[in-house]
Amino acid sequence: LLVDGGADIGLYARLLMVRTRSVQAVIAVEPNTDALALLRDNLSRPGVTAEVVAGALGERPGWGRLTRPHDGDSAHAAFVVPGTEDTGLAVTTVDSLVATPHDRTLILKLDVEGSEAAVLRGAAATIAAAPHAILQVEAHPYVARRTGVDPATWIDFARSIRPFRWTACVERSGTVFAARPLDGGFFAVHDPRDIYDVVLVSD
Question: Cα(134)–Cα(27) distance, rounded to whole angstroms?
Fold first, then answer.
């Protein structure tokens, strides 16, 4: 089971479905309505059950709205802030979307522009119940500065749910770093000019 949080147009999910036949079900969550038609098209593949959820992931169900750091920024930089029902953006949780207990390997990919810790808190039961779990979460230095939340915070939280081994891959170069002590914070030991994909694999 792949849960793709911040799925955009579905390139990550599509690539994973092309590379492996083991992904039999996808739940893709995307708040940007302009991406939904192409997302649905990219997830259409025989033998794969795909559900597209128009909304955002968080710690608990509710409402939010999309905002951008600066005028003119692309939709890729948009992030979710608290809203009301009038704003029309539904917020749900991974635990609400995934029926537990389940007997499938969980792949949870998150590109949620600062909501990582909240989304993981809302996914804790699903992560704990899965027989095997793989998490891929983007660690962006600008997002860490904007939110004041270092990636070490949500790495530590994920590892409090169950034991995980983790590595960090530089998006730009593909360089992979093994896990390091994060006492001073993720970007104290990783170049803060780079964007990383942090991959956690359950023991």
Answer: 15
Phi-psi region of 149 (alpha: psi -120 to 50; beta: other; left: phi over 0): beta
What is the chain's percent helix, strand, coil content, to nearest 5?
A: 30, 30, 40
Closest CA to 4 of 25, 34, 33: 25
Residues 3/53, Cβ–Cβ less than 8 Å: no
Sign of the four-CA dihedral 157, 32, 56, 103: negative
Q: Which residues contact 124 (CB under 8 A, 6 or more apart)?
A: 95, 161
**Across 58-175, where does the E strand assignment appear?**
62-67, 79-82, 89-92, 106-110, 133-139, 164-170
- Quick one: which of 37, 39, 45 has its CA closest to 18? 45
Under the banding of pLDDT at 50, 70 and 90, the label for residue 72 is low
The CA distances from residue 48 to 23, 35, 95, 98, 168, in Å, are 7, 20, 21, 16, 29
In tens, the pLDDT along 129-148 reads 999 999 999 999 999 999 99
Length of the chain: 203
Backbone φ, ψ for residue 24 (5° rounding): -105, -15
| Closest-CA residue to 194 (of 178, 180, 182, 177) | 177
